[in-house]
Amino acid sequence: MTRFGARPEPLRELVHEAASEALRDAEVESREIDAVYFASALAGITDEQAGVLPAVLLRTVGIAGRPMLRIENACASGSTALAEAFWAVRNGRYRTVLVVGAEKMTQAGSAQAAKAMAGSTDAEFEGRVGLLAPAFFAMVARRHMQEHGTTREQMAKVAVKNHANGAKNPKAHIQREVTLEQVLGSAPVSDPLQLLDCCPVSDGAAAVVVTAGPGGRRPPLVVAGSGVSTAAFSSNPSMTSFSATRLAANLAYSMAELTARDVRWAEVHDCFTIAELLHYEDLQFCDPGAAGRLIEEGATSLGGRLPVNPSGGLKSRGHPLGATGVAQVVEALGQLRGEAFGRQVADPSVALVHTIGGIVRGEGAVAAVHILTEAA
Amino acid sequence: MTRFGARPEPLRELVHEAASEALRDAEVESREIDAVYFASALAGITDEQAGVLPAVLLRTVGIAGRPMLRIENACASGSTALAEAFWAVRNGRYRTVLVVGAEKMTQAGSAQAAKAMAGSTDAEFEGRVGLLAPAFFAMVARRHMQEHGTTREQMAKVAVKNHANGAKNPKAHIQREVTLEQVLGSAPVSDPLQLLDCCPVSDGAAAVVVTAGPGGRRPPLVVAGSGVSTAAFSSNPSMTSFSATRLAANLAYSMAELTARDVRWAEVHDCFTIAELLHYEDLQFCDPGAAGRLIEEGATSLGGRLPVNPSGGLKSRGHPLGATGVAQVVEALGQLRGEAFGRQVADPSVALVHTIGGIVRGEGAVAAVHILTEAA
Fold first, then answer.
1. Per residue in A332-352, is it b (16+ CB within 10 Å) or e — as a string?
2. What is the mean pLDDT of chain A?
3. Best CA proximity match to B221, nearest among B82, B321, B93
4. pTM as predicted
5. Which positions in chain A touch B91 (Cβ < 8 Å)?
């Protein structure tokens, strides 16, 4: 993956960097790639490029004459591309697939960016009335506080934890620790959320090679479970639970024949601090309502029993939409190989990675969960 | 499928109409749908909606809690979604998948539309210098004329043929015959192409149900071969042949264990009249350079030995980008059932459907070919 952050290079150069590194690491030649799944949520808007993006972007790494397509599923685009590639390989359609996620966001004008982000809601309803992500997650936060006694400080601790991790990640957008006081003193965004509760706007690309065969000399990881779903809107049990995450997690756990108790660490979609707490509950890391206590106890810190977002998460590593889900897998691979340096988790053997995308009718619209394990 | 044309309804209503009709025709309940593959090339731009589109659009037909994603592959988006859905069903990942293609184009402002279409080229190179589709296909036409003696009249005959067919298609955008004189007298666009050499800008949606099981009471069709590819740019043998089409066709023919000689009729990507001639050659309906004679002889007319674009094609039925590849399958189903009324082909048993997408480095960037046959 490229370093995430404000990157002046055009999208194609970020893609070239990430794709070349993935091919090199996997010891795969470009002619061995049977297909390319490219993930980008906003490329049609921010890069004025809707269509033929993979073909345009990947000529530089020598891939042509192969099926390529773009997958778009809002902020879960990268994870969805991973799922599609995984199933195509698992079922024997292809032997080796390149998955690339990329996004350029920082150079979009503010009107363009607002339009793009409004598109991740139901643009004709939520989008038009201004119910964009910060406003939506602010309401979720208030509800969680009221229903479960979650505190402002508990939310802020998610930011403190993830920045502490991201400060040790040389690919992170914001490699800087923040204190509880700094989070609670940061500019208001949408009450109770403040600036340091929100993930940054980032550029970046990430790539992985998915193959059925033996990997190169370096240890690969195994996709043990894969689940993608959309919300079952009418059956959403509460405003503080996303049914899409629960559905996707159940699919992934069931396929991997594992439960939440088996997960040793995770990367989850902390677009806002409250979101990470919500996901603890929906991914069954704790009981509904208990997420505030989980962060409070330090269970999800680097040295805790279930480290969450050792990469820094969306909050500190950054969130170039299409790249995010793929970058989580890159982090998992680094952790598995014991190469995560200052942010290494104690037991990297069973990882869960999770993204959500969009907001429709008061909940996350899509979610993707993968369980990644070391090779047997 | 909806009628194609200038449709004032929002995208969601077009999608609702097409998806409902497909479910009804297939006698499938919305709860039986295991996944949704949604195709749209420009939705991120023209509808200000990048992300969660299927989830937003398909709640109205009662589909939720299922994996949904958007596939984008320029003008081949619909065919690419079909291919992804087909392989997911064939390999047992899903039993029943809904494929929906949709596009709203007529209400885009001209600047917005130009930006969107420029995105189907390499926007940083071809797009910026104005090498959009009409200019590109004009150069291809000139080259075909020079290399093979193809005449202006032969190109115009593609328009005459396809409008004659489309005039008999109640779902077509332009249900009107045109004469050779009208084509040759129409406004210049990019020499030698004139207005009536170009497909219109259309709105519309189309949907099909792909299933591994027995269909409903109405005869289904069988996907016998599926091929999607991108251009092998550096090896493109000539300016008048698209390697992506040749690669995709070879994949589809080989999988179906058929050759071009077995194809009884076809729907091909006639975005411009010259394009249809080019495709005759790349799909091996005739030798390179012989396409002009093929149209001249009437071989591809409704009563000919290999009718092409009985629906009217992009030229007359219309070309709402994401919907086009799906609408070709709807036409194939109607033909197979003998319900194509005044445009019925004599032998609908083996159909080839073909789309291309984008222009990169002087050729079509992506192509998709499917062979559709009657059930055994």
1. bbbbbeeebeebbbeebebbb
2. 92
3. B82
4. 0.95
5. 87, 91-93
